[in-house]
Amino acid sequence: MEKILVIGCSGQIGSELTLELRKKYGFANVIATDIRPAPAEISDSGKFEILDVLDTSKLQLILEHEKITQVYHLAAILSGNAEKRPLASWEINMKSLINVLELARELKIKKVFWPSSIAVFGPTTPRYNTPQYTIMEPNTVYGISKLAGERWIEYYYNKYGVDTRSLRYPGLISYKTEAGGGTTDYAVEIFYDAIRQKKYECFLGPESDLPMMFMSDAIKATIDLMEADSSKLSLHSSYNVAGICFNPRQLADEIRKHIPEFLITYKPDFRQAIADSWPACIDDSVAKKDWGLSSEFDLPKMTELMISEIRKKLSG
Ligand code: NAD
Ligand code: SER
Q1: From the CA of 273, how far away is ligand 1's center (Å)?
Q2: Distance between Cα 258 and ligand 1 center (Å)
Q3: Is 142 assigned a catalytic role?
Q4: Is 309 left (phi over 0), alpha (psi -120 to 50) or beta?
Q5: Which of 196, 198, 260, 287 is the most exposed place for a label (fewest CB within 10 A)?
Q6: pLDDT digit of tens for each residue in the chain (316 aa)?
Q7: C-alpha 6: how far from chain center
Q8: What is the pTM of this model?
């Protein structure tokens, strides 16, 4: 029987992934943790504990006491916020991963999930159809930490047999929990402002193409990868995940099909340079071939669902 620990359960991904894991593996078998309180849906449906992932002793105590077999390590500082506090973000993003990998090695944890990002790529990477293996020279502290993390998880696999699985998530779009301070957050914020005030001032320019993915597709991909037979995995760093490629102008056009008065204006800030350094569209053929990555949501389907769910949420 699997016993799962989620670290960072209160964030944009954790708040949905934890519930999906509980449905799949049993509510009592998924222990949720975060440095801040969890949404009621999580703290009321199973065990929740406050945990700073940098607190190695407490992490070890939980892993041993709960007899954890799998860890989903989601705690991190995202790209936009990390640029404001580079050294503190490096400390959290890297030290937390090393803590988890070391304890996974010592305690023989069966599997670890740790997400990487499109931020591992940089301005010298081919922007379109970005291959799995290519030039990687990230120029953000977040991207550098993700690339270093990919190297560490592969190192721990080769040297100690720690089985860490990882996806280079694109920007994730969801309606349950707000986005956590990244460069792709505009694609979540825009829906709230479109519904509330029928206008949005975008912090990226109109033609900023980026890869994005709807949350349920990302969660399915995560669990599919974690459940894939290890013999199918040709790499032990992190898999490219393409999702949907669009820019703010195209997303605004799609929103206008539902809210015709919607107006978008553009006021690019420091995140524009980050977006410009990332790929526009990614090639995820290796993930498709190895373990059957698939997704359901395209731009129209995602937009329709986001608008109807956020309307429901805002009307209480
Ligand atoms: P988020 O910021 O919404 O959530 C992260 C959670 O980690 C927060 O609840 C936060 O309280 C928690 N946390 C921060 N510091 C902690 C600490 N010291 N100890 C314990 N918990 C701590 O981020 P997210 O969007 O849910 O992202 C989760 C993971 O996925 C991160 O590794 C992120 O880099 C990666 N990722 C996210 C996206 C995206 O678009 N959301 C894209 C690519 C990769
Ligand atoms: N959505 C994330 C960010 O913008 C990508 O990793 O930081």
Answers
A1: 21
A2: 31
A3: yes
A4: alpha
A5: 260
A6: 899 999 999 999 999 999 999 999 999 999 999 999 999 999 999 999 999 999 999 999 999 999 999 999 999 999 999 999 999 999 999 999 999 999 999 999 999 999 999 999 999 999 999 999 999 999 999 999 999 999 999 999 999 999 999 999 999 999 999 999 999 999 999 999 999 999 999 999 999 999 999 999 999 999 999 999 999 999 999 999 999 999 999 999 999 999 999 999 999 999 999 999 999 999 999 999 999 999 999 999 999 999 999 999 999 8
A7: 13
A8: 0.98
Question: What's the CA gap between 96 and 75, in Å, rounded?
Answer: 8
Token pair listed for 43:
């703290």
Residues with CB under 6 A from ligand 1: 7-8, 10-14, 34-36, 51-54, 74-76, 78, 92, 115, 117, 169, 171-172, 179-180, 182, 184
Q: Which domains does the chain have, with CATH numbers?
A: 4-171+214-240 (3.40.50.720), 174-212+244-280+297-314 (3.90.25.10)
The two tokens of residue 311 are: 């309307």
Question: Distance (Å, rounded) from C-alpha 212 to C-alpha 49?
Answer: 31
Ligand 2 center from residue 169 Cα (angstroms)? 8
Of these residues, 72, 142, 156, 186, which one is catalytic? Answer: 142
